[in-house]
Specification:
Length: 170
């Protein structure tokens, strides 16, 4: 992936509805090469898809909970059944298997506390291998849907995004 590919990705993360013509202008390419690069980024899986970012309150799902899941057994079949069951629950927004404790971190969205309690009782607690569920209610989203950084590894910016200053050393 070169600098132009990274620029294409940065532009599309900021506005996924750009036309190829607009994108080409922003990355200083003509339309045909831009289109070829875009298709290759899609084909390779670097760009996995395009979607609208929805306001959870607008669809009545603004009660979010982080669920910490501890498993009572971790054999291959139990893990597969648990993960398949988790993936089939529409209220699950994100689910990640972790090293350490807890075993999983799951983000769910429901209409309210009552809906979450029903989800817990009827779906989450019933998943295979679950030993313990611990919930943390999200008070406020501070960072949400932030684009991935597109600078190449080892680029001339440090962690805070500021250019490195020359040290004056040889």
């Amino acid at each position: 992936m070169d600098t132009i590919d990274r620029k294409i990705i940065a532009e599309l993360q900021a506005d996924g509805r750009l036309t190829v013509t607009e994108l080409a202008q922003r990355v200083a390419l003509s339309v045909a090469p831009c289109h070829r690069r875009l298709r290759e980024l899609e084909r390779s899986g670097a760009i996995r898809g395009y979607r609208a970012i929805i306001d959870p309150a607008a669809v009545g799902l603004d009660f979010e909970v982080l669920v910490h899941v501890t498993m009572d057994r971790e054999d291959t079949s139990t893990i597969a059944e648990f993960e398949d069951g988790l993936a089939a629950i529409p209220e699950v927004r994100q689910a990640e298997r972790l090293f350490g404790d807890p075993d999983y971190l799951v983000r769910v969205a429901t209409a309210d506390l009552t809906a979450y309690q029903e989800l817990w009782d009827q779906k989450l607690a019933a998943l295979p291998g679950v030993q313990r569920l611990a919930s943390t209610i999200v008070m406020k989203r501070i960072v949400d849907n932030r684009p991935y950084p597109t600078l190449p590894p080892g680029s001339a910016t440090h962690r805070r995004g500021q250019p490195r200053r020359p040290t004056g050393r040889g």
